[in-house]
């Protein structure tokens, strides 16, 4: 027991000494300005070092790489005339944002008021292979469903994907989530963009679910998924499966103990044609 004390002290000193990686620091300072977090969250007010502990919501790892950031939850930035101040999420300036934070594990953009800009998920999101959680709910993300999040080669650590209440459309591929660690998936309530074609809705079949053994909770409610309910008898970790208000058919086959909601699917309960 006595020997453990100096070790602890050394460890603590080691962590505190890891100043933010210069590239991450530049990117975070730029983010502080463009999102308004410099004002609303006082990022940079008491220290220019994002991982130093004074930047609300920002944490770094032992090498000074930024690992978690709430990102722009700023309200003042959203109400400012946004055309003159490009944000990292605008269509014109998305590239480079995620590439600037290769160690980012969690990303949360829920209910961001900048959503009136209808941003798209920056393609360089793929430069963050250590991401465990990606959450962008109700931010008016418009576009084809980002199937790449379900590619376990690109995102081997991803456990939680929350994309509810956006304007996503298209089909989820049958390979989505195969061999992935995804436990929580929420693609519910995709709205319809007024610029979109009539069939630009969240549709297709749910067969991919059968290939996601780690799935615990899945939300697909209020979309236009068709075809049979997925074969789920092998999904032993599953606890919640909500597919209410779609256009599914067939007989529900789930392990005991799963809370299943199939309301609003008139053809569920009878065999599919
Ligand atoms: C952010 O704004 C401050 C104050 O205007 C400025 O000094 C700083 O250089 C800016 N940082 C970046 C990265 O643009
Ligand atoms: C997953 O990503 C890897 C690397 O980019 C690629 O080679 C592979 O084809 C992708 N898999 C699927 C199912 O798209
Ligand atoms: C479920 O698992 C069993 C045993 O591993 C396997 O034989 C069967 O094909 C699986 N069923 C489905 C629908 O994947």
From TrEMBL:
<dbReference type="InterPro" id="IPR052422">
    <property type="entry name" value="Auxin_Ser/Thr_Kinase"/>
</dbReference>
<keyword id="KW-0675">Receptor</keyword>
<feature type="signal peptide">
    <location>
        <begin position="1"/>
        <end position="17"/>
    </location>
</feature>
<keyword id="KW-0472">Membrane</keyword>
<keyword id="KW-0433">Leucine-rich repeat</keyword>
<keyword id="KW-0812">Transmembrane</keyword>
<keyword id="KW-0677">Repeat</keyword>
<dbReference type="InterPro" id="IPR032675">
    <property type="entry name" value="LRR_dom_sf"/>
</dbReference>
<keyword id="KW-0732">Signal</keyword>
<protein>
    <recommendedName>
        <fullName>Leucine-rich repeat-containing N-terminal plant-type domain-containing protein</fullName>
    </recommendedName>
</protein>
<keyword id="KW-0325">Glycoprotein</keyword>
<keyword id="KW-1133">Transmembrane helix</keyword>
<dbReference type="GO" id="GO:0016020">
    <property type="term" value="C:membrane"/>
</dbReference>
């Amino acid at each position: 027991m006595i020997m453990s004390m100096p070790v602890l002290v050394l460890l603590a000193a080691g962590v505190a000494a890891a100043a933010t990686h210069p590239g991450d620091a530049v990117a975070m300072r730029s983010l502080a300005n463009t999102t308004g977090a410099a004002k609303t969250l006082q990022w940079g007010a008491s220290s220019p070092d994002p991982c130093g502990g004074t930047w609300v919501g920002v944490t770094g790892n032992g090498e000074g790489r930024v690992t978690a950031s709430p990102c722009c939850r700023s309200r003042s930035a959203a109400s400012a005339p946004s055309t003159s101040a490009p944000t990292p999420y605008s269509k014109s300036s998305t590239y480079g944002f995620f590439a600037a934070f290769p160690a980012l594990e969690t990303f949360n953009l829920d209910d961001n008021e900048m959503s009136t800009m209808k941003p798209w998920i920056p393609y360089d999101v793929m430069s963050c292979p250590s991401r465990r959680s990606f959450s962008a709910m109700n931010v008016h993300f418009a576009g084809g469903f980002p199937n790449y999040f379900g590619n376990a080669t690109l995102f081997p650590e991803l456990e939680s994907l929350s994309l509810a209440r956006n304007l996503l459309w298209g089909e989820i591929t049958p390979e989505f989530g195969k061999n992935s660690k995804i436990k929580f998936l929420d693609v519910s309530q995709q709205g319809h963009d007024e610029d979109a074609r009539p069939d630009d809705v969240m549709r297709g079949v749910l067969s991919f679910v059968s290939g996601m053994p780690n799935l615990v909770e899945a939300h697909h409610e209020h979309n236009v998924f068709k075809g049979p309910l997925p074969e789920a008898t092998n999904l032993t970790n599953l606890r919640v499966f909500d597919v209410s208000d779609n256009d599914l058919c067939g007989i529900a086959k789930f392990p005991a103990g799963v809370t299943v909601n199939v309301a609003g699917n008139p053809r569920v309960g009878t065999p599919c044609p």
